[in-house]
Specification:
This protein is mainly alpha-helical. 83% of the residues lie in helices and 0% in strands. It has 9 helices and no strands. Helix 2 packs antiparallel against helix 4, helix 3 runs antiparallel to helix 4 and helix 4 crosses helix 7. It starts with a helix and ends with a helix.
């Protein structure tokens, strides 16, 4: 390769490889687009296997049809760097489509340097249909392989998700000692925080209740003292009113008694 093409010969077909990197991107873009168009929204996260197979196969077939001319040109570029004696062996390895195309033209494909020149050369010398020779086999291979791959991917994804949640359940049921201690400590802190938060309203309510009770007791004591004072004044006034006539009667009785005594003493003195 170095003698015939130089150092650049080691990268024959590299431009086609760069273009062919679009094939997976196109495949998954078409897969997601078709899934949004064909699968109901409630089933998109977990579509049925039949829908997954068909959508994946169709998207791969379309992407392969778009990039197939570049794949063919890449094979022609890699084959063109070999000598005529080695070309017969190379034709058997690159596929039946390259062998048939070489025999059909009766000439070797010249090394044109890049994939775009090779595509133009094939289109001019062999026709546009030559760019898609062997496409049916490529489409059939991609149709089956990618459809089965996406079904297998979906199944593996489901198994991994279930295994993940199973491991989580087991870890929660049988935690490690350090994890259990940390979990217990966290729960204790949460319980203490919750208790403090619950006790604060209770303490505030109790304090307010004590203040209200003290206010009621003070108001009741004041009212009772006022009532007792008023009752005492009333009873004192009543007693005073009752005592005045008694004192007056006593004074009148004393005066009468004194008068009687004086009247009795006066005649005795006169007799003497």
């Amino acid at each position: 390769i170095k003698d015939e093409k130089g150092i650049s010969g080691f990268w024959s077909g590299y431009s086609a490889s760069l273009v062919l990197t679009l094939n997976p991107s196109l495949t998954f873009f078409l897969f997601e687009t078709l899934k949004r168009l064909l699968v109901p929204r409630r089933r998109r996260s977990n579509p049925p296997p039949q829908a997954t197979f068909l959508i994946a196969a169709i998207s791969k077939a379309i992407a392969s049809s778009i990039t197939y001319p570049f794949s063919l040109a890449k094979s022609r570029l890699q084959a063109s760097s070999k000598s005529f004696d080695e070309k017969n062996l190379a034709d058997e390895k690159v596929g039946k489509e390259q062998t048939a195309a070489s025999k059909h033209t009766g000439t070797e494909t010249r090394n044109t340097g890049n994939v775009f020149n090779t595509i133009l050369l094939i289109a001019r010398t062999e026709g546009l249909s030559a760019l898609y020779e062997g496409l049916s086999g490529e489409v059939l291979k991609g149709f089956l392989s990618h459809g089965l791959t996406m079904i297998l991917k979906q199944a593996v994804h489901s198994v991994i998700i279930r295994l993940y949640y199973t491991i989580l359940k087991l870890l929660k049921r049988f935690p490690e000692p350090d994890a259990a201690i940390e979990k217990a400590s966290a729960r204790t802190k949460q319980a203490m925080t919750a208790a403090q938060q619950n006790l604060q309203p209770l303490a505030a309510s109790a304090s307010k209740g004590f203040e209200d009770t003290a206010t009621v007791v003070r108001d009741n004591a004041t009212s009772t003292a006022v009532n007792i004072r008023e009752n005492t004044k009333s009873k004192a006034s009543t007693a005073k009113r009752d005592l005045v006539p008694a004192v007056e009667k006593a004074q009148a009785l004393a005066q009468d008694t004194l008068k009687d005594a004086m009247s009795k003493v006066t005649p005795k003195r006169e007799r003497r």
